[in-house]
Amino acid sequence: MKNDTIAAISTAVSPSGIGIIRISGEEALRIADRIYRSPGGKKKLSAQQTHTIHYGYIMDGEDVVDEVLVSVMRAPKTFTAEDTVEINCHGGVYAMKRVLETVLKNGARPAQAGEFTKRAFLNGRMDLSRAEAVIDIIQAKNEYALKSSVSQLKGSVQKRIKKLREEILYETAYVESALDDPEHISLDGFSGEIGEKNRRWMGELNRLIASADNGKIITEGIRTVILGKPNAGKSSLLNLLLGEERAIVTDVAGTTRDTLEENVNINGLTLRLIDTAGIRRTKDLVEQIGVERAKETAQTADLIIYVVDASVPLDENDRQIMELIRGKKTLVLLNKSDLETVVEKEDIQAILGDSRAAAILTISAREQTDAREIENTIQELFFHGELSFNDEVYITNTRQKAELVEAFESLAQLKDSLDMEMPEDFYTIDLMNAYEALGRITGESV
After folding, report:
1. pTM of structure
2. What phi, psi does 373 have (nearest 5°)?
3. How many CB atoms lie within 10 A of CB 37?
4. Contact between 130 and 158 (Cβ < 8 Å)
5. Dihedral of CA 35/39/41/47: which sign?
6. DSSP characters for 141-183?
7. Could you tell me which residue, 423 or 52, shows the higher pLDDT?
8. What is the pLDDT of residues 133-171, one digit of tens each?
9. What is the pLDDT of residues 423-446, one digit of tens each?
10. 255: Cβ–Cβ under 8 A, 6 or more apart, which residues?
11. I need a labelling partner for 353 at 20 to 30 A (CA). Which of 40, 88, 126, 372 fits?
């Protein structure tokens, strides 16, 4: 039930210096009184001022469970907008579980996953987009993901959606008022006015929908597949980017037989690196399977890093790889610059053609040079060198994107109605559909 008092361990359940058990609900302070004992034995937490911290002990009957600091926070100025008590105990796994068991024994029930944030939403403490940003902050894997989630938690999505809904609702109300009272409210010239506003709304929604691609990359990372012929230096490149000897490197062609996946952070972005088997014609059954997996993996990549052995001429295998990656975001690395090279950038460009999605660099993976240039080029390929969170909103949630698409489609239907000069009451249907879809992003429409 919504009014139950809930409790849970709010920090990681692993050995640490401090662990926090949170209690939230109408009975939070009374439950705390039952289990808390001050050094003098006379202090009642329910009698203390809000947002204060108290030293003492958690007691299970007459047994001391742990020495603690207890925070008292009264509604509504808490995360859940309910009375909240947070017990700061020692961070041993057993110690935290014993404190939680004592809390549950004295009247609380275990909180469900995400229930504190759910209560914050239901109690009007935050809208749904902010509530979803909480878990995104917890799961952030890089600097950009954290910045995006913090921006959403501060209300960047909610503010943008709220403004759109207010404008759409105003126009809907105007149409309905004019239809109810045509003698006093005129719709002359309204089609032109609403058409101009609708183009602006659709443009705004289109930008938000388009940001979801970058949002996915920010939160999930860039799925990066390393392709090339055997012995081109793919595994050496993987080790270079990781900064450790993760992949086996030998002079024997075909050493890598299967995909090898690792994550690495570069310039605040996460690269999900996938090293693959060298692509070539071969009679070895196991190697054939590895080659096919490499090709399949390339189809779903956000970025292809094509490693070319620049010390040997291009051959049919290279042409096969370049045909595979044509049109995809690609970073071509002319490797082994420490040796005498026979492949130039112009040779690659002649085969790839005018591909704006491709960048070409000369490197030596074995000598571990040019790692910084590789990182900067990848960032340039995706975000033109930088990401700004001052005014930009990045949609990182699939549910939110789906609602934006539905709102956009409703406004597209409004455009059709305007183009066909339909009666004004048709406008309100599409306007309200867009209004409701946008409301589901913030939770105002449930």
Report:
1. 0.65
2. -65, -35
3. 15
4. yes
5. negative
6. -SHHHHHHHHHHHTTHHHHHHHHHHHHHHHHHHHHHHHHH-TT
7. 52
8. 787 777 777 666 777 777 777 778 888 999 999 999 999
9. 888 899 999 999 999 999 988 876
10. 230, 235, 248, 249
11. 372
